[in-house]
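Internal ticket - ligand job 271, S-adenosylmethionine:
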Amino acid sequence: MKPEDFQLLSGMLKERSGLALSEDKVYLLESRLTPLSRKRGFDGLDDLIREVRVRHDEVLMRDITEAMTTNESFFFRDSTPFDLFRDKVLPRLTGARAQTRKIRIWCAAASTGQEPYSLAMILSENQARMKDWRIEILATDLSNDVLQKARVGLYSQFEVQRGLPIQMLVKYFTQVGEMWQIDSAIRAMVTYKPLNLLESFDHLGRFDAVYCRNVLIYFDQPTKADVLSRIRKCMQDDAALFLGAAETVLGVCDSFKPVSGERGLYGIAGQ
Ligand SMILES: C[S@@+](CC[C@H](N)C(=O)[O-])C[C@H]1O[C@@H](n2cnc3c(N)ncnc32)[C@H](O)[C@@H]1O
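stdout (structure tokens):
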């Protein structure tokens, strides 16, 4: 790939999704965009790049942006953020919200739904104690394709074997041919909406717990700081933030502090 083509694509991706690509990632552009160029009827990647250069085709730009996102996810990923939610955060929140009986959770880069559905299953397990509670799980992502898959809730054998305890599979999924579909009651607990973290999310209101996992790793430092400081503004003062195993607030955003001894869990600084 010519250096000017790399500049064009990486600049566009940075602006549209925050993805910061270093020059050693040319192979990633080539491996992900070559199939897209074929699918869109171009003669190859050079042709696709020419189109980007001469025409402002919004649909093509969106397809390129979505093709470059990494959507890997699995149920109860890294287990600790879900154990902590079940054993520490949820009991604390049910105490603190005993008056309003309302809890709002946001999965800010939800991909194909395994993260919000893992939380929905935990909440469902607590149903007996939380009967008259209003629980909202909002799941957002930049990519419409992954959100569509999440809404349908159909997963392959491989996907349900990654992280999902067998008892949960039996209890909450139905086999559909070679796939497994998560039950409609669990699906109904999650609301999916497209949302780009680079754009304003003030309108979402305030949350009691935010999962923003395995997305900040793709951003540069100023973008991480900007997204985190805006996430803080839509969290209650006693809310919990969960980041991915390779992510931290330290040295990035001083609105949060790590919760001592609880890996991946952050509270609001000064609270
Ligand atoms: C690796 S997945 C993480 C999924 C899940 N949070 C987890 O940890 O398993 C990263 C997701 O971030 C989304 N993403 C990337 N850039 C984004 C942006 N600027 N705004 C919102 N979502 C974005 C991608 O579409 C992708 O689905």
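Auto-summary: DSSP finds eleven helices and ten strands in the chain. The beta strands are 102-107, 134-141, 154-156, 173-176, 179-182, 190-194, 207-212, 235-243, 256-258, 265-268.
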